[in-house]
Prior knowledge:
two-stranded antiparallel ribbon, 10 helices, 2 strands
Amino acid sequence: MDAPLNLQNIKSGLSKLTIREQVSHRLAAMVQAGILRTGDELPSERELAATLEVSRETVRGAIQMLAAIGMVEISQGSRTRIARTEGFSSYNSVTQPVLSGQSADQVYQARLMIELPVIRTAVECIDDDGIARLRRLVDAQREMLEDTIRFQISDAEFHDAIYQASGNELVAGFLRQLFSFGMEYRRHVLLRQGSVSLSLADHIDILDGFEQRDPTAAAEAMQHHLDRIHRTTLEAIAETSVDRR
């Protein structure tokens, strides 16, 4: 069950870790990137195991590792919560933010310049197992329309699977930084009625490009996705600025 997990993308040498350690680093990376925030309830062990394609025992062990350092809080009879997001020096190498001070427009332009050629390469390089992985993620997302946190985790896995398929780890690592930009605003957007459905529709179109082995269709679907993300992120930034006045 644990063999399919491929998380060497998180940091150099990660593949030398056990699967449980790899999962703990993956979840820690999501916390430090802002995908998961203080107070968030993690999906169930079963749901996380399905998304990450590992066993429930592996997920349980990974969560226990994060609980031991105080990143998550395990409570009997309720879901595990993110306890805090900062002060974890041993995990700082998981993700190093490089976008501090950059504008949403700059990040958007960077994603267009880098991510669109990458998705074309990914379509050409991805194997049948990789496409099956994307399909499983999208199929699962159809059941997450009312579960924003679970969708965000699956969303990150979907994009990461594409970055991995390009075969260039250096570029994939930078794209993960771009993906994590403005997560506090993305959360605000996804809470809007119908927003998760729109993201899912975008993912379905991107997946269709991969299944058809059509780099142009996949890239066009990704550009539509990035355009919508940029537009709604700017709207959320403006709304948040008004609320803080």
